[in-house]
Amino acid sequence: xxxxxxxxxxxxxxxxxxxxxxxxxxxxxxxxxxxxxxxxxxxxxxxxxxxxxxxxxxxxxxxxxxxxxxxxxxxxxxxxxxxxxxxxxxxxxxxxxxxxxxxxxxxxxxxxxxxxxxxxxxxxxxxxxxxxxxxxxxxxxxxxxxxxxxxxxxxxxxxxxxxxxxxxxxxxxxxxxxxxxx
Length: 182
Description:
The chain is mainly α. Helix content is 62%, strand content 7%. A hairpin with a 7-residue loop joins strand 2 and strand 3 (125-129). The longest helix has 25 residues, at 37-61. The protein is elongated and about 65 Å long.
């Protein structure tokens, strides 16, 4: 489809497509704007919300929020002895150190992690998985991967591979671009 062409208001077989309805309304109200990006960005946004809800529901079965799952997973991925400094954890989970402190506090109260002084820097701390924390994240991560397989099963393997390649390329390009305001 050429860029100037307007896609149909309602894709075939998708009578309840919320994003297509939003696009149609904007085309009606602002025919001077090309609202075609909504077809991708809007759907990705809605899909991300749906996937987050599906993933969060699974984490809750293990008594975890998304943040706690991320911390336990980052510690488990570190390999034996399953520990990292709080700053490293923040970097591996892309949250602020303040948010990380709250997550670690909750996990420590639950007996899933411990904190101790770093051996090489007495001012620093190290967060480590307890045996209970390791057992929980191993069980939760196994269920998480099954859940992700279930969610991806809605795509054919070649569709999933194509989507992975497209998303990877897009993310690399965006990560290399300078943020600008439109």
